[in-house]
Design a protein that fits this description.
heterodimer; A: 404 residues; alpha/beta; Aldehyde Dehydrogenase, Chain A, domain 1; Aldehyde Dehydrogenase, Chain A, domain 2; 2 domains; seven-stranded mixed sheet; six-stranded mixed sheet; 17 helices; 43% helix; disordered N terminus; B: 371 residues; Rossmann fold; 11 helices; 14 strands
């Protein structure tokens, strides 16, 4: 810790040292020691009783289980010709518990060392994770990972942020528009690669006809998957849907909406009950929504937990104003291509139901939309992947070496 | 002026005139509801017709679109106070607007903007002094403002504080601005004013946190004559004092160590409803007058609270004609204790304010929450 020196006054090196991490050599992606370390993390987490209190930790443990990592490795054909870029500075979002750790995993998997600025909020999950990591890394078996791991904390401080930015070979900048703007001001190495994650919004597309064919259990399952996508982070996660695109003809869409929203409302009340403190915020937000979207006749469906506004067509206000707390905007359309056409580059994830995978894929390509970096079935919106926000993280954080 | 041509304007104007010439805090619950809601309904229809924002919110967020009129204030639709920060809310033609009032707002915050036509401004001033004089017992009196004189200059921005000062001025028999331009207490001016007026009734008026600052900076050697019939009316919120951990008792003690025998009354009001303030009685309860109404709504579902139940405060005022501010959901929390049965003998609702609504913790990818 003492190696931090004067340059990093004000930085709390919670684990590891910035200097050691910066100096570490790059490794090959999906190298054995990293895979074995992450497998260990997965095993340790699953052993803990406290994991039941945090579904996101359980998801993380599942994400980095050895079988899955082996599968991921097998998906990349040229990793033998790749090396990590070196050191990566991770700027975590302040208010999501685990993004910092996925970001760390991404850079470990790609053969890099990590300096991870922790979220400003002290989540119990981060504490659990750091304990697990510390315990595993105390074994000399993992010294390669140990010297490439550094978790830090500091109050917002541009001098520190600029200093660290000047040392690293890549930056993963989460936290939204303001954070990205701020970090882009700092000088970096000329070849430093920035993966930036500004504010994004997401959308769901549902085939109305398919909803009408569901039996009770299937409808309930669809609703609970939709709720998990949307409400786990009160819709404030960039991949959580705020806009719903209904595909189908008039009567079918009307009947389908009725079924769907009533079931979503029931499911939400059970799994994501109202929080007293958000009710007035929700009212304030919805008052802003009806004023901002004033150009259209708004049809408002108010249920116990869910509010839905009906719009004639997609407009840019939807992506620029807060829409959270169980409020959604919906638009109906006859074809997927048409529905997706007006989505701007602000749209990140498209979740779908009632379509074949290939059908949606084709619609996305044919629509010519500037947005949509990710297309997954409803229920998978929050799953982190090595393709994120349109980046192929493995190729972005490695150098492809040509040997003739 | 266009607002004068509105169908119900004449009826509205008349009802305010009647109230201005009637005694205050006299109506019982039934009569108050009847009279107050009659004018409220005129205001509601006016704002639905003239304010797109109010109409959108009413039509989209309230399920009682088809209800011709409302019988009780808790049935009224309401708009959030924060909307005044986000939109230009007007219910008259832009050409009728004479003044735009800005909330002082701490730095970095977006101020609220209140659009006033001439008649709305005049009514605000009349009602402010009407309510105040009802508590003082007389209608004209010497006034000391804890403000610098520059607050009334044309160059200063139009704030709720300026509106209050301008509202009181026409009723002042003697005036003192007790602060220098740098905001320090002008002890000479203070002493001279008190010596001139100590025998009769006086009104001292100021922003709660400003009054507190002044009390801290007054020199220990300052000796003022004993007051006979003086009242300090202060308002603007306890937020700053609460953050300094200053209790109401400490506040009162500090004031009484400088001003002996000074009656201290808090008032509650907001820039969106300037004029129709709520003033504290001798039993330390705030009171709604014939010009205003107040209820609390439960945090859990925004339904009306019962008496004694803590909730989010919704305020009603008969004064906002040029902008849709007649029914507002605030971000204050408080308790309505009852109506017509306060020990002080005043009719109407009586209540206390407990603080600000804590803003909800928002989780998600983005670090910036809404403005």
């Amino acid at each position: 810790m003492s190696q931090g020196l004067r340059a990093f006054a004000g930085v709390d090196e919670v684990y590891g040292s910035i200097e050691t991490a910066v100096r570490a050599n790059p490794l090959q992606p999906f190298n054995d020691v990293t895979l074995s370390f992450l497998g260990e993390v997965s095993r340790e987490l699953r052993k803990m009783s406290s994991i039941r209190e945090h579904s996101d930790l359980a998801t993380l443990a599942f994400w980095c289980r050895p079988k899955r990592l082996d599968y991921l490795k097998s998906q990349y054909k040229d990793i033998g010709s790749r090396l990590g870029v070196g050191s990566v500075f991770h700027v975590s979002p302040g208010n999501v518990p685990l993004t910092f750790f996925y970001s760390y995993i991404f850079s470990l998997l790609t053969g890099n060392s990590s300096i991870v600025r922790m979220p400003s909020v002290n989540f119990p999950q981060s504490k659990v994770l750091l304990e697990v990591v510390g315990k595993i890394l105390s074994s000399d078996m993992y010294s390669d990972v140990r010297e490439r791991t550094c978790f830090i904390n500091y109050e917002r401080d541009d001098v520190i942020s600029a200093d660290i930015s000047s040392l690293v070979d890549a930056r993963m900048i989460w936290g939204g528009d303001e954070t990205v703007k701020n970090f882009k001001r700092f000088e970096t190495k000329l070849r430093c690669r920035d993966l930036v994650f500004p504010n994004r919004v997401s959308v769901s597309m549902i085939n109305a006809n398919s909803v009408l064919k569901l039996n009770e259990i299937e409808l309930n399952s669809l609703a609970s998957r939709f709720c998990a996508d949307a409400l786990e982070f009160d819709q404030n996660a960039c991949s959580s849907p705020r806009l719903l695109l209904w595909i189908g003809n008039g009567d079918v869409v009307t009947a389908s909406k009725e079924l769907f929203w009533n079931e979503v409302d029931r499911s939400a009340l059970i799994s994501y009950p109202k929080v007293d403190s958000t009710e007035s915020e929700k009212f304030i937000q919805n008052a802003h929504i009806v004023c901002d979207l004033k150009s259209v006749e708004l049809n408002h469906r108010k249920l116990a937990r869910i509010d839905v506004f009906e719009l004639g067509e997609v407009c840019s206000e939807i992506e620029n104003i807060p829409i959270m707390f169980g409020t959604f905007v919906q638009v109906s359309n006859h074809s997927p291509q048409n529905a997706l056409r007006n989505l701007s580059e602000k749209y990140q994830t498209l979740t779908y139901f009632g379509f074949e995978r290939d059908e949606v894929e084709l619609a996305v390509y044919q629509s010519g939309s500037r947005g949509i970096d990710r297309v997954v079935p409803i229920g998978s919106a929050l799953e982190m992947g090595l393709y994120w926000d349109g980046y192929d993280v493995v190729s972005q954080l490695t150098r492809r070496i040509e040997v003739l | 002026m266009n607002s004068l041509m509105d169908d119900n304007y004449e009826e509205y104007s008349k009802s305010i005139e009647i109230l201005l010439n009637s005694p205050l805090f006299e109506l019982n619950e039934k009569d108050k509801d009847e009279r107050f809601m009659e004018t409220m309904n005129i205001l509601h229809r006016h704002h639905v017709n003239k304010s797109e924002h109010y109409a959108n919110i009413f039509n989209s967020l309230f399920n009682d679109k088809d209800q011709p009129s409302f019988n009780k204030f808790d049935e009224m639709p309401y708009i959030p106070a924060r909307l005044f920060k986000s939109f230009e809310l007007k219910s008259v033609d832009a050409s009728s607007i004479r003044t735009v009032m800005h909330s002082s707002g701490t730095s970095g915050q977006i101020p609220s903007r209140i659009f006033l036509d001439a008649n709305t401004s005049v009514r605000q001033r009349k009602v402010l002094s009407r309510i105040t004089s009802s508590f003082l017992g007389i209608s004209r009196f010497p006034i000391l403002f804890f403000e610098p004189k520059s607050i009334i200059s044309n160059h200063s921005s139009f704030s709720a504080r300026k509106a209050a000062v301008l509202g009181f001025l026409p009723f002042a028999t003697d005036v003192c601005f007790a602060l220098t331009e740098s905001g320090k207490i002008d002890e000479n001016a203070l002493v001279e004013f008190i010596e001139r007026n100590c025998d009769g009734p006086i009104l001292l008026f100021g922003f709660t946190s400003v009054v507190w600052e002044v009390m801290l900076s007054v020199s220990h050697t300052l000796r003022l004559p004993i007051l006979r019939n003086a009242t300090l009316l202060h308002g603007g919120g306890w937020k700053k004092l609460a953050s300094l951990d200053i209790s109401k008792r400490q506040f009162h003690e500090a004031i009484n160590s400088v001003f002996e025998n000074l009656k201290i009354r808090n008032y509650y009001g907001m820039i969106e409803q300037t004029g129709s303030i709520y003033v504290e009685c001798d039993y330390e309860f705030l009171h709604a007058s014939e010009f205003s109404e107040i209820i609390a709504r439960r945090k859990s579902d925004l339904k009306a609270c019962s008496y004694g139940e803590l909730g989010i405060i919704q305020v009603g005022s008969l004064l906002p004609w040029s902008y849709p501010g007649h029914s507002i959901l605030t971000e204050d929390i408080g308790v309505i204790f009852g109506r017509d049965n306060c020990e002080c003998g005043r009719g109407g609702a009586y209540f206390s304010i407990q603080g600000r609504l804590e803003s909800a913790e928002v989780r998600g990818c983005s670090d910036v929450s809404r403005a």
